[in-house]
Amino acid sequence: MNNLDLTIILCISVLAAFLLAQRRAKLWHTSSTTNIHSLPSYYGYLTAIWTLMPALTIFIIWSIFELNAISGIIVSKIQELQILDKESLELTLNKIYNIANSDFYNLNDSSSINNQAANLFIEYKNNSLILKCISVISIAILSFLVVYFFITPNTKARNKVEKLITYLLLSCALIAILTTIGIIVSVLFESLEFFSQISIFEFLFSTNWSPQIAIREGQTGNSGAFGAVPLFWGTVFISFIAMLVAAPLGLISAIYLAKYATPKFRSIAKPLLEILAGIPTVVYGFFAALTIGPAIRDFCVFLKELGISLDIEIIANITISTESALAVGLVMGTMIVPFILSISDDVISTVPNSIVDGSIAMGATKSETVWRVIIPAALPGIVGGFLLAISRAIGETMIVLMAAGVAANLTANPLDTVTTITTQIVVLLTGDQEFDNVKTLAAFALGLSLFVTTLIINVIALYIVRKYREQYE
Amino acid sequence: MSNTTKLVSANLKKRYAKERRFKFYGIFSITLSLTFLLFLLFDIVSKCLPVFTQSYVELDIDFAPKYLNLEEKSSYSKEELFNANYQKLINNSLYKLFPEVKARKQKRILRKFVSSGAQYKLRDLVIDNPKIIGDTKSIWLLTDDDIDSFIKGLIDENAPESERRVKDFQINWIKSLQAKDKIDSKLNINFLTNSDSREPEQAGILGALKGSFYTMLITLLLSFPIGVGAAIYLEEFAPKNYWIDIIEVNINNLAAVPSIVFGILGLAIYINFFGIPRSAPIAGGLVLSLMTLPVIIISTRVAIKSVPPSIREAALGLGASKMQVITHHVIPLAMPGILTGSIIGMAQALGESAPLLMIGMVAFVADVPQSFFDPATVLPVQIFIWADSPERAFIALTSAAIVVLLVFLFLMNLSAIILRKKFENKQ
């Protein structure tokens, strides 16, 4: 018998509970003169829920704590394991699980401690499984009997079932809150740990970012430089270039589609443009790194030669790099176009027709109406949409990771390499690292600043958009 | 003509020109975006074409026991055959083919003419049919990725030798083999049947596809019921108070939180706190379902809102309870909308890679995952890993994996659009 069998048995007993209770309710209905309160199936549901709940709770709690409890017992039984420190104990325990779970090792050979422990482990695990099965099934039967005994024809079964389902639905809605709390908890504590080692002022205002120094031998953790200003700048710079591309393209396309295009053109062009939003960011990253980046570099090489031959100093000193902020910004901008397009489209269509028609009736051309009536009226909504787009550009990871490089430069030259918050988070957190290393902690501090920044922008943007909608609705 | 009319008509030409210019800008910006899209798709499809075929070389393999490092006897145990030296067989037939190669360094390069996986093909062949030992047989073997790239014309023969990955003497070998009809290109099955590999010619996407499948299954099983449940609660049962307002603002915010932040949450809470195995589809699915939840909740709420009140009122009037109205009428009517939103959310999750990098799904996994707990990678992360690899042949593999991913996404979005159309026609 294993966990799967137990699950199946539990399912079958719940079904049986449902059928038994339902049958009894039907019998009440046909035999007695008193009316039953709810439909027979509700008596079934109520019994089934109460049969399942306690048993399932025990099942889940037992399964979560089973492994820890067994390892605790093994450690207390075998003295050789007690002298190990925390890390090597973990390693040894892992080894023991592997021995116990595979049929590769010869377990009869009990000379080594690991094998002894593995044998103990198997024994306790089997015992625990048997105990678990017995307790889960007996609790299910017990709770079934109790519920079955307490339910009478007068029980308000439907109301009770519906109440229980409402609680279930509420708990689904609470998961959203739990997620936010989870995010805050996971970044906040590690960040506080980080700021206890590196001053928050250094992190926010120093311009030197080189976390790699910290891992060299013979140096203490805080010898690496953790001034995040170049990362903040790189993020802002790339987002700025992206918005420079996306804002005019998206807004003008939206106006054209809303006010000029024929319905047929609109029905073809809009879905096509929305494909751009559906393409995974890793694809954009690949495209930026292998096509746009090299193309920009080749163009710069060409310009440089031209500059040298024409003796123009500015062009001759042009920066040549495959990983340029420009390439990333261009590609990211194109990615954001459909996002701005759909928000602007939404916003423009909420502008009341009466004021648009009024403007046309006064003799204004369509473009004059757009610039002088529609855009001023829709401005808050458009700004809100742009803010959401900026927050998306700030949080974008794959394109910058693949095409922007990791050099932390504080430069305003779009042809130079810059790095961003998201890139550094990935670089610092991937690979095998100690979890309490300053370098890893720095990633959480960056995560915190990213979360807080985007949160503020989002809250402002959502507020503006909501207020704007309310104004015209 | 009045004074005003004069003024207006004087300006009219200029204003109309402005109008035309503005219209042109509109067309121009739409065309620009669409051109970019076309260019991107064209670029990727044209880069993936080399993946369809692979070059094979025909070698006369002499299965003499001495080349296999085996003693001469009538029968061999399976273990002996398994541990025999098959690379030596290949080396030997290559030396015979090019007897003029004597220098150690060149010999070493010659040995790398054939893919390092070819020996396993011979091993399987011998284990299946041990009688072959002692015979000579001509067998088609996979070439190395550099040789393959040259045969496909991806390496410029006229480039200076020092900048080429295939040297002049290697080119001569290829040409002499081609003259003898010993090189042929065949359909590439490895791409669909293999998992990741360090050797481009042996790498495939099966492992990543299966990893994506397991991850998506978990995401769907978690986010769909929870998302729909939350939406029903917020739309139908929630009282209008401060707490519910917070939940609503929260959900809208979560939809806009950068995906990498969810990865950090997965790393800190799921992996370090709950001890869920790293790199496993279960961890990936848990992270992605948190990301998909807001999308499903928002679209489900819109779908529920669009159910006409007349239907609710009719059901309530006939004595149905609130829960019965919801389960019997509202949900079935809102289902197409809910499904559309869910498919779009799932498509987003399928293309997502940043949070999965955080929870270690970026590790090199050469085995096809068999369960939710095995180390695995997913399709977009596989694309990222290959895009980072220096070998030239990986570019084609990356593009092909992108094409596969885009096809899946296209199918998902297409089904969402068809569902929406059907729904609209019904109403």
Strand and helix layout:
The complex is a heterodimer of chains A (473) and B (427).
Chain A: H1 3-31, H2 40-77, H3 79-82, H4 86-101, H5 113-150, H6 157-197, H7 200-205, E1 209-210, E2 225-226, H8 229-260, H9 263-278, H10 281-310, H11 313-316, H12 325-350, H13 353-361, H14 366-395, H15 398-403, H16 421-429, H17 438-472
Antiparallel strand pairs in A: 1-2
Chain B: H1 3-48, E1 53-62, H2 78-83, H3 86-97, H4 104-111, H5 118-128, E2 136-142, H6 145-151, H7 168-179, E3 183-187, H8 190-193, H9 206-237, H10 242-254, H11 259-271, H12 281-305, H13 309-317, H14 322-351, H15 354-358, H16 379-387, H17 393-426
Helix pairs in contact in B: 1-17, 3-5, 9-12, 9-14, 9-16, 11-12, 12-14, 13-14, 14-17, 16-17
Please outline what is shown here.
The complex is a heterodimer of chains A (about 475) and B (about 425). Chain A is mostly helical and about 475 residues long.
Explain the overall architecture.
Chain A has 473 residues and is an all-alpha fold. Chain A is built from 17 helices and two strands. Chain A has helices spanning 3-31, 40-77, 79-82, 86-101, 113-150, 157-197, 200-205, 229-260, 263-278, 281-310, 313-316, 325-350, 353-361, 366-395, 398-403, 421-429, 438-472, and strands spanning 209-210, 225-226. Chain A has a two-stranded antiparallel ribbon with strand order 1-2. Chain B has three domains: 3-49; 53-188, no CATH class; 206-426, Orthogonal Bundle (MetI-like fold). Chain B is built from 17 helices and three strands. Chain B has helices at residues 3-48, 78-83, 86-97, 104-111, 118-128, 145-151, 168-179, 190-193, 206-237, 242-254, 259-271, 281-305, 309-317, 322-351, 354-358, 379-387, 393-426, and strands at residues 53-62, 136-142, 183-187. A three-stranded antiparallel sheet of chain B has the order 2-1-3. In chain B, α9 crosses α16 (379-387). Chains A and B meet through α6, α8, α9, α10 and α12 of A and α1, α9, α10, α11 and α12 of B.
